[in-house]
Amino acid sequence: MDTENRTWRVGELAEATGLSVRTLHHYDEIGLLQPSERTGSGHRQYDAADVRRLHRIVALRGFGLSLAEVGRVLDGELADPRGLIRTQLELVEEQLAAASRVRDKLLGVLDGLDRAHEPSAQTLIELIEVTTVMNRTLTREEYEAMAETRRRLTAELTPEEREAMDVRRRKAMEVLSAEELERMRQVREALIPKG
């Protein structure tokens, strides 16, 4: 099929890309991605150039840019991108560190399973938390479900397991600088749903 000469209705583009129709409508409303055409009845029609712009939007959002920042980059309004790139680099470094922690936890669980030991509830709690919050802001429902799961699993721990967890947490916090603690607080705050 010749994709350079075809058009996509909003539902077709949403289905093809995995984005929601609502997201595409929002991008149109804020002027970030306006369809090149509209049908006689007002339906959005996206062409290949629109798809290319959408790809750039998704890529820039993947670097952690806000929609306003994405718009400025795409419209050539960002004169000096160094500050933006530094911010992106910090975000990528945080994501790499989080991914490394997930990897370490998974290797520990796998090692325990290889030795026919069931991972402790605490290990699973930490793995769930690190995996869940690694890449995105949680919805209110996800945050509440995660908090409830954490409370339930913590309640199932023996006093010894809870004490060991507290000791590990204290030791981990003690080695962090004030700057690292503040960055961690900011990252956690960004992940928690507003309201």
Automatic annotation (TrEMBL):
InterPro entries: DNA-bd_dom_put_sf (IPR009061), MerR-type_HTH_dom (IPR000551), MerR_fam (IPR047057)
Plastid as UniProt keyword: no
Xref: SUPFAM superfamilies: Putative DNA-binding domain
Boundaries of every HTH merR-type domain copy: 7-76
SMART domains on file: HTH_MERR
Keyword tags: DNA-binding
Keyword hit for Coiled coil: no
PROSITE patterns the UniProt entry points to: HTH_MERR_1 (PS00552), HTH_MERR_2 (PS50937)
Membrane-crossing residue ranges in chain numbering: none
PANTHER family linked to this entry: HTH-TYPE TRANSCRIPTIONAL ACTIVATOR MTA, REDOX-CYCLING DRUG-SENSING TRANSCRIPTIONAL ACTIVATOR SOXR
Annotated protein name in UniProt: MerR family transcriptional regulator
